[in-house]
Amino acid sequence: MRANASLSPDLQALQKRLEHEFSSPRLLQQALTHRSFSADHNERVEFLGDSVLNLAVAGLLYERLSELPEGDLSRVRANLVKQDTLHQLAVQLGLPALLRLGEGEAKSGGRKRPSILADALEAVIGAVYLDAGFDKASQLVRSLFSAVEINPHMQAIGKDPKTELQEWLQGRKMNLPIYRVVGTLGAAHKQTFDVECEISEYGRAERGIGGSRRAGEQAAAAAMLAYVKTLD
Length: 232
Fold this sequence. Notes:
Blueprint: H1 9-18, H2 25-31, H3 43-64, H4 70-80, H5 83-93, H6 103-107, H7 114-132, H8 134-144, H9 161-170, E1 178-185, E2 192-199, E3 204-210, H10 213-228
Antiparallel strand pairs: 1-2, 2-3
């Protein structure tokens, strides 16, 4: 029996849009599973997909914007992989109808929540990476961003705290910060994330809270940025 036969017609159609047939269909199902639905949810594969996405987009920008310096490339990338962009791409890919959500999350509008859809898209990218390797995942990322305008002027858009902190550290030849979710509060359909941002050279960590992991990371980065700027 082909692995594809174990997937529903809707997920088989998604595979066609992804231009990838999974050898392990479970990976695709897991990528679309929110923590409110099952313990076998998508957060770990989303974590992996986030890194794959950033590397694939970095390679794309290195080719297309060959004249831009590193700092501006980082800013363009940050604007391409931000939640709003990923949310739009997830909708275009048809992910809202395919998400597996707990009853409470579904009733509270989880299928339309930008943070859930952005995370699901990253999880799908991570699932393709696990199933077929980086080249296939990078091919998917390039396909997803093929209709997104990419130009040098994007670097003029204001920097978010994570990007600004990264550039501050890179400018001083320091390691990038480490982000960890140290706690979650509230029901599965209305959680807040307590995130820690650590800079190893200083032996210091700052924390932030947000309605999604991304928002928590940005809050923690903002707190750390406020601290490091006192050192200049």
